[in-house]
Amino acid sequence: MEQKSLRVLDTNKTFFSKISSTITKILIPTRVGINNIMISMKRNNLIKAYCNYTTAIEEDDIERKENLLKKYEDIYSLYLESIDKYIMDSVYKKVKNGTASNFEKDALSKYYLIVSLKENQYLEYKYKKQEYLLKIDYESVTNLKKESTIEKYNKFYVSKMDSLYKGLLKNYSVQLADTFSSKVESIDSIYDKIFSTLETYISEILPIKLRLNQNDEYKNIVNDYEKYESLLVGKLDERDKIKRKMLLLGISRYLFTHSLPLIAAEQCYIKLIKNTRNLLLKPDSKIKKDRTFDLLTELIEDYNVRLLSTKVYWDKPEEKEEYKEFWDKYNKINKIEDSKEKLKQKQILFLKNDIKKLNQSKKDYSKIIKEIKQKLVELGAIRQIKNSYKTTIGSYKKIA
C-alpha cells in the first residue's frame, strides 16, 4: 500500500510539473516581448538624456551639466536593470525549461561567470557586468532601421565602453603593481586579462569609433591597426600571437595612456620579450629561428622607442645614462641609407644590449645568451673562438 501510494504521488508530481513547464513555455514569448518593449523605451530615454548631457558639455553650461549628468546616470541605471531583468526572466527560464539555443546557454554561462567575480573582484565585476549588458542590447540596436537612432546610440555606446575599458585596465594595472593581489591571482592571469581587454576593445569598439570619427584623430594608429587585422586571418603560431600582443600594446600607448600607465605597459613589454626569448630554446628550423630573432628585434625596438623614450622618471640614474648612450647609437643607425644594412645594424645593437641585460640578471640565462651569441656570429658582429690547446709536439687539438 505504501509503495503504491508513493508511486501515485510521484506520478502526480510529474504530471503537475509537466503542466507548469508547458505553461511557462507558452508565457516565455510574452515576457520576452514585454521585456523588449521596456528595454526599447528605456533605451530611447537614455539616448535623449545622453544627447542633452553632451550638448550641455559643448555649451559649457556648468549648472545645467550637473543636473543633466545626474538624470543621465539615473536613466542609465534603469536601462541596465531592464536588460538584466530580460536575462533573468527570459534567457534563464528558457535554459531551465530546455528551450534555449546554444547562444542563449553560452550567454547565461558568461553572465554567471561575471557574477561570480562580485565577492573577490568587485571592481572587475562592476565594469564587466556593465560591458556584458551593453553588448547584449547592442545587437538589438544594430538591427534597427533608423540610422539616426543607431548613430546616436553608437556615440553613447562608444563613450560608455571607453570609460568601462579604461576602468578595467586601470584595475588590472593596480593588481599588477600590488604584490598582495599578485599572490591571490597569478601574475600570468593578470597579463592575460590585460591583453584580452585590449584585444576586445580594438576588435569590437575601435572600428565603431573609427566610423564615427570625422577627423584624423586616430591616424597615428591606423598602420598598427591594419597590421593587427592582418594577423587575425589564418593559423597563427606563437610568434604571430606575440606580435599581435605587441601591436595591441603599441595602440594602447595612444588610446590608454593613463589607464594602462607606463609602469604597467613596461611590465607587459618585458613579459612579451621574455616569452620570445624562450622561443629561441625550441628546436625549430633555421627559418623559424630567424623569424623569432626578427620578432625579438622588433619587440626590443618597440619597447625602446614607444615606451622608454617617453619615460621621465628613472629609478636609477645610471639606467637613464645607459639608455641615452643606447639612444644615440640607435639614432646613428637610423641615418644609414641602405635598408638592409640598417636592419642588420639595428639587430646587432638590440641583441648586444639584450645580452648585457641578461648578464646583469640573477637568473641563469646562459642557454638564451648562447643562442643570441650564435646569431651575432652569423651577423658578423662577434667572432667565434674555438676551444683548443697546444701540445708539446706543436699541434692543436679541439677541446670536446
Structure commentary:
With 400 residues, the protein is mainly alpha-helical. The protein has a domain at 1-133. The chain contains 14 helices and two strands, in the order H-H-H-H-H-H-H-H-H-H-H-H-H-H-E-E. The chain has a two-stranded antiparallel ribbon. A hairpin with a 5-residue loop joins strand 1 (388-390) and strand 2 (396-398). The longest helix is centred in the first third of the chain and has 57 residues, at 2-58. It starts with a helix and ends with a strand.
DSSP strand tally: 2
Strand content range = under 5%
| Stretches with pLDDT under 50, minimum 5 residues | 1-32
How many DSSP H or I helices? 14
> Structural class of the secondary structure composition?
mainly alpha
How are the strands of the biggest sheet laid out side by side? 1-2
Shape descriptor reads elongated
Structural key phrases:
single chain, 400 residues, mainly alpha, two-stranded antiparallel sheet, 14 helices, 2 strands, disordered N terminus
Itemize the secondary structure elements and their pairings:
Layout: H1 2-58, H2 62-96, H3 102-115, H4 122-142, H5 147-177, H6 179-184, H7 187-212, H8 219-230, H9 238-255, H10 262-279, H11 286-307, H12 317-334, H13 339-360, H14 366-378, E1 388-390, E2 396-398
Antiparallel strand pairs: 1-2
Helix pairs in contact: 1-2, 1-5, 2-3, 4-5, 5-7, 7-9, 8-9, 9-10, 9-11, 10-11, 11-13, 12-13, 13-14
Give a quick summary of the entry.
With 400 residues, this protein is an all-alpha fold. It has helices at 2-58, 62-96, 102-115, 122-142, 147-177, 179-184, 187-212, 219-230, 238-255, 262-279, 286-307, 317-334, 339-360, 366-378; strands at 388-390, 396-398.
